[in-house]
Amino acid sequence: MAKVGIMETAIRDGHQSLLATRMRTEDMLPILERMDAVGYHSVECWGGATFDTSMRFLKEDPWERLREIKKRLPNTPTQMLLRGQNAVGYRHYADDVVREFCDRSVANGMEIFRIFDALNDMRNLETAFDAVKRAGGHIQGTLCYTTSPVHTVDAFAKLADRMVEMGADSLCVKDMAGLLSPMMAKAMVQRLKKDHPQMLVQMHCHSTSGYSEMAYLMGVQAGADVIDCAISTLAGGTSHPATETLVAALREDPDHATAIDLEPLSDIASYFKDVRRHYWKFESNLLGVDAGVLSHQVPGGMISNLVGQLRDQGAEAKLPAVLEENARVRADLGYPPLVTPSSQIVGTQAVLNVLTGKRYGSVTKETKNLAKGLYGATAAPIAPDILKTILGDEEPITHRPADDLPPELEAAKAEIGDLAKDIDDVLSYVMFPQPAKEFLQWRSEGGGPERELVAAVVGALFVREKKPAAAAPVAPAGGFDNGMAAPWRSFGRMRQMR
Description:
The chain is of the alpha/beta class.
C-alpha cells in the first residue's frame, strides 16, 4: 500500500498566511538539511507572494533563494505555486515571458509546478503547462475550489478532464479559503480518482474555517495521495493543519499512514518556533477558527487587506457590511473563486460600493477588466445589466486574453539595461518593474545598508552618547523588526542584535 505523502508548506504558504510572507532566506536555510531527511513528498518553497516580497521588502533575489534551497534539498522535490498566465505576478504576461519564466525556474531548481488560474479558465493554463512540460518539470493541474450554484462536482470533474488532456502529471484540489467540507472532500477525491485512477491527487486546505483536518481525513480515505501541511509552529489560523497532527492521526490507519516519523518533526517545530519570534511585527492575529468564512468566503489574508482599506478611511466598523457586499459582488461577477487576483478585485469593489453608498457608482480598473474578460471567462455569465453598469457600451472579449499581448522580453531587456546581469533579472523586472529596478539598483551599488537606515542608526547612537548611561533596552518579544534586517548582512552581520 502506497503511503500518504505530506507536502510541507512552512517556508512558503505557512509564513505567507501567518507572517505576511516576510520570512528571510537566511532563516530557512539552516533547517533544510534536517527537513530533507524527513521524507516529505515535497517542500513548497517558492512562488505565490514570495517572489514579490523578496525584492520589495527583504532586498533578496528570489532566484538566489531557489538555488540555495535546492542545494539543501537534494532528496526532496521542490514545489511552487504558479498563477498560470500571471506566473508569479498580478497580471497576464505575454507567452514569451511565461515560457522563459518556466524554463528558468526549472534550471534554477524547481521541480513541481502547481499551476492554477483564478477563474479556472483552462485557456490561461495552456502556455504554462506546455512550457513546464518542455522544461522537464512536473505539471500539477489545480482546481481552485469554491462554492456557488455553478461549482458542482461535475463541473470540477470536467475541468480536471481538460487538465489531464493538456498534459497534467497530477491534480490538486486547492481550497484557499477553507471552504471544502469533509463530505465534499470525499466526493471530489472519489470522482477524480474514479475518472483518473492513475493520477496522483493532492489536497491543499487552509484551516480558516475549522474544516481542514476533517476534510483531509475524508479525502485520504477516499484516495487522496498527498496532503499539504505546515509544521505545528506555523500551522492553524489561516495557515494549514499541523504536519505532526496529521502524521500522528494517519499512523493509526495502516492503509493510510505516512512514511514520516514524529521525532524529527519535533526539532523542526522547535526551530520554526524560534524563527517565528523574529517576525512578531507581521503576525496576522487571525489565529483561531473563523466560521464566518463559510458564508462570506473571504480568505483570512484578504480580510486583513479589507480591514486596512477601511481603517484608512476611518470606516473599520463597516467591515460586516463589506463582507456581505463582497458576496453580492462575487455573484454579480460570475462567482469567481476568491484567490489572487480575483479576491482583491472583488474585495476592493465591495469596499467602494459600501463607502460610496452606490453599487458600482465607482468602478476600479480591475473590475472593468474582469467584466471585459481580460482575466478570462467566469464560471457563470455576468448578467447583462451588471455588464452595462460596469462597461457602458464596451463589449467583453471572448478569446484567450493573452492572445492580445505582444512579446515583452526584448523590450524589457532594453529598458533594464546593465542593471540586469542575466535573463533571471530581466524576468524579475518584467514581473515587478519598480521593486525589481530598485532591488537591482541597490545590488549594483554594493547591496550595503540603505542610506535612511544608516542615518537612523547614526542618529540613535549620537543621541545615546549624549544621554547618561542607562540599562540596555529590552527587545520586544521575538526580537527587533526583522523586516528591516536585510542590509546588515553586508555590514558586519549586525543583524545578530535581534
